[in-house]
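Title: [Solved] Ribosomal protein S6 modification protein 3D structure

Original question kept below for reference.
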Amino acid sequence: MRPPRLRFLVSGLFVLALMPGLLIPASADSDKTIYGWVENARIEPWGVEAKAKLDTGALTSSLHATDIERFKRDGETWVRFTTRIEDQRDEDMAEREFERPLFRRLRVTGAGGSDERPVVLLRICMNDTIYEEQFSLRDRGDMNYPMLLGRRTIEHLGLIDVSETFLNEPSCDDDSEFVAQDEDDDA
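Solution (posted by the thread starter after getting help):
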């Protein structure tokens, strides 16, 4: 039997081998922006800033939405929904109805059963860049964060420091870089 310290060292090295990103020196990614696990994201062109949890366990981003209704426009399926969130700039509640084309349907299965959600494309400002991203719509009124950013969005942003929050403020303008939705990323 191995001594306890050696067993701990071997176990730790095994875990590090499974997580190669942990061994990359910070200087290797110095050109990437570092985000905290919670950031403010501005919904464009609305201009309201929402608390967003960066969630590596989710693939698709999610936005708080109520009164979700599908309808037809010019033969295409669209989604009408209302979002009511606290604007982080002044802490006032902001509410707006949106209409967006249905991008796809998402089936989510969890401990509570199965659920189908509409997914739409929305633009958000993170730091100084505008991103067009997929957002599933669901009532997140009982959640701490009205917006959840999943891996599809996070992969465009940079790195996450899970010990930090609010490292970057949205500061987009008409000259900001725009990152369009990846057309191959529709599943």
